[in-house]
Amino acid sequence: METDVVIVGGGPVGLYLAALLLQAGVRVRVLEQRPSPNGHSRAIGIHPPALAALEDVGLASALVHAGVPIRRGLAISGGRTVGAMEFSSVSRRYPFVLALPQHRTEQLLAERVRTLDPDALVRGARVTGVADDGGQVAVSVGPGLGAADPARGYAAQVVIAADGARSGLRQQLGVPVARKTYPDHYLMGDFADAGTHGETAVLFLERHGIVESFPLPGGVRRWVVRLGAPAPAVAMDPLHLAHLVRDRTGILPEPGSNSMLSAFSVHTTAARKTVIGRVVLLGDAAHEISPIGGQGMNLGWLDAQALAPVIQRVLTGTATPAEVCRYESGRRQAAARAARQAGINMMLGRPLPPALLGLRNAALAAVASSPPVNRWVARRFTMQ
Length: 384
Fold this sequence. Notes:
Blueprint (H helix, E strand, L loop, with lengths): L4 E4 L3 H12 L4 E5 L12 E2 L1 H7 L5 H7 L1 E3 L1 E6 L2 E7 L10 E3 L2 H15 L4 E3 L1 E8 L4 E7 L8 E5 L1 E4 L6 H6 L3 E16 L8 E6 L2 E8 L3 E8 L10 H12 L10 E12 L3 E2 L2 E3 L5 E2 L7 H21 L4 H28 L5 H16 L1 H11 L3
Parallel strand pairs: 1-2, 1-12, 2-8, 5-14, 12-19
Antiparallel strand pairs: 3-7, 4-7, 5-6, 9-10, 10-11, 13-16, 13-17, 14-15, 15-16, 17-20, 18-19
């Protein structure tokens, strides 16, 4: 089957790019190997620049309506507030960070794609190989997990690899990556919200490591606890996480209300090259950064927003090699900035002895008490 663009991966970044291109009249097929949507809520934060980008596909209002706007963040240590960050100055249109589970975000994006083209999203399709002859890319497709559809093939002028941090397409192309591992491990879970902090995000900066707390829609609150080592299988239960939260913060989430539990360790990857002939790596396939600070999904959307007009000019034969190079270098720089900010976020949450913890808290209090510095930090945190 011939089409203009094949997007490998039907996550939030691939679906967003598909919607942008479909609106411009580009023929698109999104190949997703999962036969059904993933209900696991991973990324939850949507930053102001990403909300502005999502306006381009007519979804910003629906997302805001579905989510929880976080307009303020608190830093607490030892039961005492050491600083606050207000998001009122970060954006005129979106003076907040929107909290919305990723599966709901994906659902809204998929609905938009289907509205534009009911056949654009193909589930249960696993890409087994690509062959780029310089003018066209042949995409070999087999059935995905749990799919019974027969194998199919596509021919496209451009192929986008938006298949995540463990990108199979990136591996098939033999693109080398730079990888860095961090000494940071986390256990997170969603529990019923007791209502103590309302719609405020709270960072508990404690001696044994940070505990993060974010409101979610439906009376739910996410808790993220830094661990000293990767979470062992025996520790992966809601009661263990609830007790960790209680021991550091004095707050005990109700274990029986747990609706999601996950553990992760932090590493970053950066593809040495993101444009390989007529194949482009996008989002986490191009650069994976720490989830602390919630920048990864947002960065992918901004990548896609920058890439869409380049693709349109490639299809019309008007794109220049210099333009493609500018896209690649510009997004590489954006990823490096996001990675640096994520590194700062993780550093602030690491365990400290009491004396150093006091110094860190005093520094945070000084930042919070200076409105110009507070505004600057808030803009950096929200990717402005």
